Amino acid sequence: MNPLERWRLTGKTALVTGGTKGIGYAIADELLRLGATVTVAARTEADVTDCVAKWRSEGLNPRGMVTDLSKPDAAETLIASLGDSLDILINNVGTNVRKPTTEYTNEEYRHVLATNLDSAFALSRAAHPLLARSGDGAIVNIGSVAGTVAILSGLPYAMTKAALDQMTRYLAVEWAKDGIRVNAVNPWYTRTPLASPRLADPAFVQRVLDATPLKRIAEPEDVAGVVAFLCLPAAHHITGQTVAVDGGFLAQGLA
Ligand SMILES: NC(=O)c1ccc[n+]([C@@H]2O[C@H](COP(=O)([O-])OP(=O)(O)OC[C@H]3O[C@@H](n4cnc5c(N)ncnc54)[C@H](OP(=O)(O)O)[C@@H]3O)[C@@H](O)[C@H]2O)c1
After folding, report:
1. Which residues contact 34 (CB under 8 A, 6 or more apart)?
2. Could you give the CA distance from residue 185 to residue 27 in angstroms, rounded to a whole number?
3. How far is the CA of 135 from the centre of ligand 1 (A)?
């Protein structure tokens, strides 16, 4: 193989859930520029249409699907709409409801679990035949450092992210025989619409910076670069790993 081919995704097909905003948009953009055909899936039709039009105008190869992945059967319907080819699945979609544990309604709890965890489980299962047929399949789950330490995220969100870490390890082992690698990328605070209410509070931002050795808030591209690497042929012996994109947050104790 030409050494540069290890750093390209030419001819690959990818699905990025939540690929119209924030981290998901940056991941889709990166995979497209590396040569992949990328389907982005989200609920807001206008965003899906706008993203696809923008990327097409740049000569890239995007597709769009409008779907609510918190709903039962949405994952299976989405995978069925892709046709017979999928090499890369990015389980990025995520949401949060942040409050003290005793104040969650059952509906709020179920919504966070359905969006963040059930969708990744259902999509991975539904995509398995296509990823196995690829012979070089890759799944990247977007978790969070909230799955490792308590960071005022709210408990249901933290539970879903911890579960994604274990789903990553378990599927990496179970599906290695099928040629499917499974890894996770776990961000700390990143400038996206999801994080913007928290990042609008300067006092809170200062607390985040104090806890972050690299002393900056991540941009979505910081996460997207690592996700793209894990999808490349260059990463073909990496599976079952969780990579924190956190500016050193998890490494810091007393500083
Ligand atoms: N930002 C951070 O600081 C941070 C830190 C750690 C981990 N993360 C994780 O990174 C991932 C992306 O977060 P983000 O900050 O980029 O979020 P975001 O800015 O809120 O973007 C979320 C994306 O997912 C889509 N989406 C949300 N609910 C959906 C549903 N039910 N069905 C289909 N699409 C849905 C949204 O589009 P529609 O609204 O149109 O559906 C949007 O494209 C999440 O898993 C999050 O937990 C983020």
Report:
1. 7, 8, 9, 10, 228, 232
2. 11
3. 29
Comparing C-alpha atoms, which of 112, 239, 82 is closest to residue 167?
Answer: 239
Q: Which domains occur in the chain, in start order?
A: 3-190+219-248 (3.40.50.720)
For position 175, what pLDDT does the model report? Answer: 98
pLDDT digits (tens, 9 = 90+) for 86-107: 999 999 999 999 999 999 999 9
φ/ψ of 191, rounded to 5, equals -75, 95
Atom 22, ligand 1: residue with shortest CA distance: 18
- d(CA 142, ligand 1 centre) in Å: 10
Residue with tokens 């097409």, as numbered in its chain: 56
pLDDT in tens, 156-204: 999 999 999 999 999 999 999 999 999 999 999 999 999 999 999 999 9
| Mean pLDDT, rounded, for 29-54 | 98
Phi, psi torsion values for 103, nearest 5 degrees: -100, -5
Residues contacting ligand 1 via CB (< 6 Å):
18, 20-24, 41-44, 47, 67-70, 92-95, 115, 142, 144, 187, 189-190, 192-195
